[in-house]
Amino acid sequence: MTSKTLNQFLNSNLQQLKQNGLYNEIDTVQGANGPTIHIHDKEFINLSSNNYLGLATDERLKIAAMEAVEVYGVGSGAVRTINGTLDLHEKLEENLAQFKGTEAAIAYQSGFNCNMAAISAVMDDQDIILSDALNHASIIDGCRLSKATIIPFAHSDMDDLRKKAKEAADSGKYKKIMIITDGVFSMDGDIAKLPDIVEIAEERNIITYVDDAHGSGVTGNGFGTVKHFGLQESIDFQIGTLSKAIGVVGGYVAGKKNLINWLKARSRPFLFSTAVSPADAAASIKALDLLINSTELNKKLWGNGNYLKQGLRKLGFDIGKSETPITPCIIGEEKITQEFSRRLYDEGVYAKSIVFPTVPKGTGRVRNMPTAAHTKEMLDKTLSAYEKVGKEMGLL
Ligand SMILES: *Cc1c(COP(=O)(O)O)cnc(C)c1O
């Protein structure tokens, strides 16, 4: 018999979510998550993936993964510290360190998992973390897990950060202070002000932690936001994911050798969760080889992003303050934004609406994620759909 208490909890809360329009019906993609996708047997131009460089379906990565399956099988067999560390994992970590310009790197099973691992391995209840108000959910959870005091600062507001860093240092209450920020913020596509953050941190001996999940493969000619600003020597933790631009799955920290040694000794997901599969590791190694040796896909991504942005702007849409290929199209009111996205869907364009509480009230937007794999024709079709729906809804 299932628990009555559990049933009551689930049913009443699910009903509430549905009443408030917060229950997400999940669409199933039939086949690959490429520049076009099939859902409910219909084809769409896909502007909702994080597959920035199109690597999720790249032939070279597929071959690397299949070859790894032939040699190593499908599983790693154990956690990294028992005997799950295959030579593939070591090669992956060498590539990551080279990619990020650091002494060393450690790979995890996901970006989410990496934030669970790395923050709490270094910070504890005698410490304080200054965290950008728009940081990713996994950063927030990772901070909570550490039991450190968490003080959010207003998004990218360096005056607020400076003031809070001074208060934390002057209080004399904390052993360590850390500043944590996303490198690229995924809702607006804006870039963290890392030079100011480094300056503030250096004044007070503060640890710096940058999660560049949306920057790696994208900013800094593909090498990420830290490289974009030339700050490889100044940022202590460079976090990334292998699941967005890299196209596979996994996460990592790149940094100094002693930091990586500590994380290998102390971070719990490394010690207690099985290593990523051989196919995933091999495909990620291949992706990093491609990015280290050529900026071709990165250039294509930015070309497509700029083309879509210019087109939307020319039609008269507000595309916000993005500094990256992430292209929000700000519609405003929540219901109208959701209706806009639904009408694009009818026109064969899959771009999700993002509304309050994920973004502030009245700033609902349809978020477009152009990739290197989109063709001009796909982007032109997208712009035609935007124009049609915009006119029909009286927004243009
Ligand atoms: C997507 C994202 C993650 C999670 O990465 P996964 O590899 O998908 O678990 C972590 N941090 C940030 C900033 C992200 O955008």
From TrEMBL:
Q: Any idea where the Aminotransferase class I/classII large domain is?
A: 43-384
Please provide, alphabetically and separated by semicolons, the GO molecular function terms listed in this UniProt record.
Answer: glycine C-acetyltransferase activity; pyridoxal phosphate binding
Identify the CDD domains for this entry: KBL_like
User: Could you say which EC number(s) this protein's record lists?
Assistant: 2.3.1.29
| Keywords assigned | Acyltransferase, Pyridoxal phosphate, Transferase
What Pfam families does this protein map onto? Aminotran_1_2
InterPro entries documented for this protein: Aminotrans_II_pyridoxalP_BS (IPR001917), Aminotransferase_I/II_large (IPR004839), AON_synthase_class-II (IPR050087), AONS_Archaea/Firmicutes (IPR010962), PyrdxlP-dep_Trfase (IPR015424), PyrdxlP-dep_Trfase_major (IPR015421), PyrdxlP-dep_Trfase_small (IPR015422)
Enzyme class name? transferase
Q: Which cofactor does it need?
A: pyridoxal 5'-phosphate
Q: Which Gene3D superfamilies does the protein's record reference? A: Aspartate Aminotransferase, domain 1, Type I PLP-dependent aspartate aminotransferase-like (Major domain)
Subunit structure as annotated in this protein's UniProt entry = Homodimer.
**NCBIfam families referenced in this protein's UniProt entry, alphabetically:** gly_Cac_T_rel, PRK06939.1
Question: What family name appears in the similarity comment?
Answer: Belongs to the class-II pyridoxal-phosphate-dependent aminotransferase family.
Under the heading PANTHER family, the entry gives: CLASS II AMINOTRANSFERASE/8-AMINO-7-OXONONANOATE SYNTHASE (PTHR13693), LD36009P (PTHR13693:SF3)
Q: What is this protein called?
A: Glycine C-acetyltransferase
- What is the source species? Oceanobacillus halophilus
